[in-house]
Amino acid sequence: MSDAYNPRIVGFLCNWCAYTGADLAGVSRARVSSSLHAIRVMCSGRIDPLYVIMAYLKGADGVMGMGCHPGDCHYLKGNYNARRRFVMLESIFKTLGLDGKRIGLWWVSASEGKRFAQVTNEFTELMKTKGPNPFREEMFI
Amino acid sequence: MSARIGVYVCECGPNIPDRIDIDRVLEEISPLKDVAVAKRYRLLCSNDGKKYLADEIRSEKLTHLVVAACSPRDHEKTFMKVCLEAGLNPFLFQMVNIREQCAWIFSEKSEATRMAVKYIRAGISRVTLHEPLLQKEIKATPDVLVVGGGIAGVETALSLAGQKRRVYLVERSDALGGTAARLGRLLPHQGTDMRLIQEKIEHAENNENISVFKGCEVEDIRGFLGNFEVSLKRSGGEPPPEMFRVGAVVVATGFALWDAFDPDVTGYGKIDDVVTSLEFEAMSASGKILKKNGSPPRSVALIHCVGRKEKGYCSKVCCLYSLKFAHQLKDSQPAPDVFEFYSDLCLPEKTDQDVFEEAKKRGVRFLRADDIRVEGRNGKIRIAYRDGSAEEAVEVEMAVLAPAMVPAPDSDRLARMLNIPLDETGFFKEAHSMLDPVSAPISGIYIAGCASGPKSIPESVVQAQAASGKILSVLMLGKTLEPEVKVSTIKEELCTGCQTCLNVCFYGAISFDAFRGVSVVNEAICRGCGSCVGSCPSGAISSKQFTYQQLFKEVMEALR
Q1: Residue B158 φ/ψ, nearest 5 degrees
Q2: Which of A31, A44, B212, B383 is least buried, going by the fewest C-beta atoms within 10 A?
Q3: pLDDT tens-digit profile of A37-95?
């Protein structure tokens, strides 16, 4: 990856909405940035804030959480847990002087293949403008 | 014994090799630690493919299996079954999605190949940490609790009792039948329909498989699909009748009429002979549609949509019953003048249009009206309204309001007890309003009739029959249930007993063991979402197949 900078983004996708939406992006042959490495979890509520921090400290340029739209959670309200945690994470990032814009939570439904592609590509572009996570160097010397 | 992982890349016909250099992937994967075999196959989900995979598991003595193919949503279960048949625990298997989220979304073959390697590496790194989980079976009670003895509840009870199920039918009031049994007539023209409703009620009361509890409410329900424990209380305060166990619960609590309308606008309670639709039904049932002074009204206004704006939804049935009232009034001698004040007519059923056309022929006046105000004037009722920009008024001797249907009182209490949600209108929320309209979002709980929103009698009956069908197909006699395997677990030695997880679990699957001072997961209720894991401040909770270590490995491969 010497010629063009390709950010490394970790995505936690809920099984029922976002992961299915990502599948649909494939079925409809949407073009999605290969910066995102998707990890399937059963619910966005399963995205332990620890993983987000851990992924960031281990050098991820960005961390995306994706879950069902409010009111559509397969597990009733797990996505609300996720939302609270991402709000909390952003304030933790701010407090520690880290870049809170490198993490985020998106709602992507099972029918939103296009939206999955769009939010992933947009986030990738944003990470490209931000450049590598400063922790990447420190952690991997 | 060291791990022997078999990695099999499915070609999926041309789908994967067109976009991913599989040989290159195998080259990179083969030397990895614990990988015993890495091979490609043209179509693993075919019968030949499944046989090949099973043979490979046996002959290569694999301890773990990784299949890189389509989305796990397509064939994870297929390959888990192959594992089971080949004698490998199906949870020692990881599916890697290199088709939908790899081959099909990346523009360059080199990129797709690079990402396929990353995804497979992630699968391999997590699979050795998989636990050989076991599918448990739990005994289920086939009996059913029906809450609410209206037409939906009675129909549910009769349908289930017809299949020899014990049904506990609990009704808050002292009579079955609900609103449907209180109507004057069912259809616009007099028939034997009310008799048919009474027959249904009698059948329910006399059915040996139905235990009817009138004047009772549900005091408490605990449990899960197949095993709910129910206790009742008598509204009068007498001792509770009994405790029993059921496998499923049907919420058929019906509706109430909105009554919070402004008396200054509707005249209700201030002006004589302004009545609600149900009060009119009661008059009609007694056979005497009379004014307060005992004489029959010579003119009647039927006012639709009372509360539609305030509540924000259409109650569906008021247009048709207002037409029924009009016909009923026109049937009497001498026939009064009838005015229908409407804003939109909602007449969707196949025979509704005829009822409307016929009413017009019989001289019923249809007035499209906004800003209706009911005023008292010299002992008469004056209906002032706006038609477009013109201010108009009509004087009548009786006005019938068609108020919005609202949730039955105490719906929120029942919802809390059952741990199921209400929607923004306050009615019970369906698992999916279009695709799963008689299920609550929690397994084992069903909703029939107006409990989930305004419905006509035929719709309520259909829902009752649908809910019964769902219950009969889920709780089959003598069949056990298979609860979720990938549930949360709590390490007692790490649990501090803070009980944060109890509030996070929307299923009520976690309880607090006060004696040991720790939280405990009921594996029969837990659905495996993992919300509790992220809430635990001491890291005591883990979810099976999605443990911290397994996800950590995946993250590390993602960052490679």
Answers
A1: -65, -40
A2: A31
A3: 999 999 999 999 999 999 999 999 999 999 999 988 888 889 999 999 999 999 999 99
CA-nearest of B84, B79, B29, B7 to B50 is: B79
State the virtual CA torsion across B404, B407, B409, B414 in degrees, nearest 10.
180
CATH 3.40.50 range(s) for chain B read 5-127
Between B100, B101, B555, which is nearest A54 by CB?
Answer: B555
Residue among A32, A59, A85 minimizing CB distance to B534: A85
CATH 3.40.50, applies to A9-135:
yes
Q: Which CATH architecture has domain B144-254+408-474?
A: 3-Layer(bba) Sandwich (3.50)
Q: Is B35 on the interface with A (CB under 8 A)?
A: no
Q: Is B473 exposed, middle or buried (0-12, 13-18, 19+ CB in 10 A)?
A: exposed
| Model pLDDT for residues B421-468, shown as the tens digit of each residue | 899 999 999 988 899 999 998 889 999 999 999 999 999 999 999 999
**CA A12 – CA B217 distance, rounded (Å):** 44
Q: Cβ of B533 and A58 within 8 Å? A: no
Helical H segments across B140-240, by residue range: 151-161, 193-206
Q: Is B366 on the interface with A (CB under 8 A)?
A: no
DSSP-derived letter for residue A61 is: S
- What distance, in Å, lies between the first and last C-alpha atoms of chain A? 18
The predicted pLDDT at position B290 comes to: 94
**Parts of chain B belonging to CATH 3.50.50.60:** 144-254+408-474, 263-405
Q: Note whether A22 contacts B100, CB cutoff 8 Å.
A: yes
The model's pTM: 0.73
Question: Model confidence over B82-91: pLDDT tens digits?
Answer: 999 999 999 9
Between A10, A23, A59, which is nearest B71 by CB?
Answer: A23
Q: Does domain B263-405 have CATH number 3.50.50.60?
A: yes
Contact B554 A38 (CB under 8 A): no
Task: Say yes or no for a CB contact (<8 Å) between B529 and A78.
Answer: yes
The pair of three-digit structure tokens given for residue B93, joined into one six-digit string: 């298997």
Arch. (CATH architecture) of B488-544: 2-Layer Sandwich (3.30)
Judge: domain B5-127, CATH 3.40.50.
Answer: yes
pLDDT of residue B137: 87
For residue B443, the model assigns a pLDDT of 86
- Residue spans in chain B of domains classed CATH 3.30.70.20: 488-544
Q: Does the predicted interface ipTM exceed a cut of 0.85?
A: yes
Interface subset of B 78-107, CB within 8 angstroms of A = 97, 99-107
- The count of C-alpha atoms lying within 13 angstroms of the C-alpha of B15, restricted to the half-sphere facing its C-beta, is 24
Chain A hits for B73, CB-CB cut-off 8 Å, are: 15, 19-20, 23
Please judge whether A46 and B111 are an interchain contact, meaning their C-beta atoms are less than 8 angstroms apart. Answer: no
